[in-house]
Amino acid sequence: MDQELNNIDFQELRDKAYMLRYELFDDLEKHLLKIEEALQKNGVKVSWAQDEQSLYGEIAACLPQSSYNTATLDLDNFNDLPLGDNILNTYPLEDIINHHQNVDTLIVNADYAISSTGEMVFIDRKSQHCFNKISNLVVVLNIDQIVASHEDLDVFLYLRQCVNQNNVPKDLKFLSKSFDRVVQDDFQTSNSKGYSTEQVNVSVILYENNITPILRNNRLRDALFCIKCGKCMDVCPVAKVAGGVSPIELVKSTCLNPASHSQDIFQKTTLCGNCKEACPIGINFTDLLIYVMNMINEKTNNTKSKKLLSIIHKRGKLNKYNSPILRWYLVKKMFGKNRVLFDYFKHQKDTFFNLANKDNTEPSDESFEL
Ligand code: SF4
Question: Is the whole model's pTM more than 0.85, yes or no?
Fold first, then answer.
């Protein structure tokens, strides 16, 4: 398949990938139900979690019936689960890999799931080596990481490699049903082989992470098309200079939790357009970021954000001047009266002005609903 993909022009592939994501999210419910059905048919327990709180509840429900459980986590977004020490004690992954600890349960994120087959996909996850060392496996599947078929997965994995050579998967595991593991017998008789097998209980939690409002909004929906290649983080000047989250995480976290992240979106982007150019799915970040900024402004009526957004739009004008002194003069002239904004741009000047800005999209006056 890679050979076939090799022959396709990158832009063509990018357009294809965008369409695949578009079609999938247009009919996400159907794909989710297909996955649920396929897994249940294979004896896998499936449950749903809408938000973080219900995810904890579902994880707790998947643990063995005991007053004290031990677990190892291999989750992207959680270092710890607030389930209470009396319920869950967690151990590092290395402890089970190195046989230092027996745990009841392994809780792991799936990287993708394929709706046509009901398979969950694990890419280069160290925890895969532990699948035969535990009795309970709980898989958390973020519903925006579903793909329709193996062919689609090939396209996305290939694109991840195209934009980042380190993204070549070394170890790919597909899991669609409960499986048996080998356990050593405590007592050996002349008839025993010295080992027996026991079934590993596999549970899957389909985790919505509150994305329904994003899904319903045609403009915001693109934010869910991300295939986690990490490229937008690599090319983001703010992330390079100040560290922090990737542009796509910035958009998503602001949409998911506007109250706590409303100002981040103004402080952590220069709208340089680098992420838009680099994204292998062709997510239009500039439009997306401006849309979210406008949305926040509508909701909060924050004067500081409004000024920042209007200044961001003037960046194209300032970029026409190559002289650092002239730029400095313009910044001082335009924003000198406002200490906060002046300081902001003073510190941003390298990343803000040294970029070849291609995008001068004007803010629109639309109303925004989330
Ligand atoms: S949004 Fe960022 S991480 Fe996601 S596919 Fe595009 S470049 Fe990669």
Answer: no
